[in-house]
Amino acid sequence: MSCCDLAAAGQLDKAGIMASDCEPALNQAEGRNPTLERYLGALREAKNDSEQFAALLLVTKAVKAGDIDAKTRRRIFDAVGFTFPNRLLTTKEAPDGCPDHVLRALGVALLACFCSDPELAAHPQVLNKIPILNTFLTARGDPDDAARRSMIDDTYQCLTAVAGTTRGPRHLIAGGTVSALCQAYLGHGYGFDQALALLVGLLAAAETQCWKEAEPDLLAVLRGLSEDFQKAEDASKFELCQLLPLFLPPTTVPPECLRDLQAGLARILGSKLSSWQRNPALKLAARLAHACGSDWIPAGSSGSKFLALLVNLACVEVRLALEETGTEVKEDVVTACYALMELGIQECTRCEQSLLKEPQKVQLVSIMKEAIGAVIHYLQQVGPEKQKEPFVFASVRILGAWLAEETSSLRKEVCQLLPFLVRYAKTLYEEAEEANDLSQQVATLAISPTTPGPTWPGDALRLLLPGWCHLTVEDGPREILIKEGAPSLLCKYFLQQWELTSPGHDTSVLPDSVEIGLQTCCHIFLNLVVTAPGLIKRDACFTSLMNTLMTSLPALVQQQGRLLLAANVATLGLLMARLLSTSPGKPWGPGPDG
């Protein structure tokens, strides 16, 4: 029995309560622990701080001796309240013979007991203790001190309980907990593994806020994890594969981290692995591709072989998942493979400073063609009930990236899928139009560095525009697109996007993808003007488009940085005006002067 236990026993002995009563004995009739009841009674009747401290110490011991239900926990809170625990957490004077952290440890133990009730975990009197609790995580002390270890465990229990409440993560981040957890983890003292687990939870709940408040500390953790990952020779490297994506910053990843991550992934993916070992590595590689493009892959022979390996593995995984109908698809893994395939498409089409040599490009294009065939096969099976699922959108996205560069291969399969793609794009467009909130869509852009510019959530049309631009040159695909109503849909889409360039909108924050989409639409319309002039003359949507072009062009010319778009619009407008001027009944016919 410690000195503090002896002091507590002495104080309670005066009150007629012996420390030996700590032996738990459950009263079956009342369903209560009589020992705990006796201590709670002593706590309520305590005449001074010493007696209250002694009773609290034994209440805490009784609570830790076994599980308690919510009602008992509430009764303890009603008997104790927050006032005395508050004093315990802030006092610097301990009873004679007791270490100075004993009182704080008791206060944290009581808070941990209270925090197991979600309502109490969100109580202001708990939330305002966050800064104090943070200091316990990084305080120095004897690593073998059982009381200090118990206090650290209770501190993590409190912080974890707060994090589990609705607004808890926000309070923890604002209170400096992220930095404290980073320092606790990097110090590798007692409980550092709990610090990492809580960090993971906070990043998953509020990634942007965490990085905003504690970027230097989180980068330090990333450096440590990356170095551990590069050096790991045991199963821990697979666990790190799952953790590391959460610690990639929204800004630039430090070069030393990229080197370590690439080296670690090269060793993992170059080995013979089971799916549960390989899949986290592919997902980490996809996150790096999303954040850095190909900048994280070194130049030279080793880098080109690594990139070829990545794309090869991704294509194999896609085919295994999608070619067999009825196979359960691990959508998160396949979506990660799509990102790696996009990286492959990007590098295969890059003329200068590509990581790949020509023979490697030829080989990868052939491999990716087979994987795209599997994607087309999957999309052919998609029914109306699945069209709103994110995985379907991801599948359309990778197909759009492929069609933007290659339409000659898989032509038959692509033509068979075109009716679905038009219907799919129309469904998503109409839903976005019903929302009628363009500013909110622009504010919630999802950025992907593997394609030119941001993508509106659900904006499948922008992903398909480059491929459709190529396909409208060819007779067969163009006829299918016209039959399915794609030109009319594109006119509506163009007019919707055009609104964002009007003087009433702040064009300075307009994403480049809007202008790129408008330019690509112009190219499609130019193809139709040349190859299907009858469609332009008979479809009323082109008359509306013509009106918009002619009335808006002067204002567009005045906008800085929009010269290329203005040139596309002017060219399209002139050709359409010339074509429509020959149509009887059209407003663009020759005037009285001929």
From TrEMBL:
Family membership noted in the UniProt record: Belongs to the neurochondrin family.
InterPro entries per record: ARM-type_fold (IPR016024), Neurochondrin (IPR008709)
Organism: Galeopterus variegatus (Malayan flying lemur)
The protein, known as: Neurochondrin
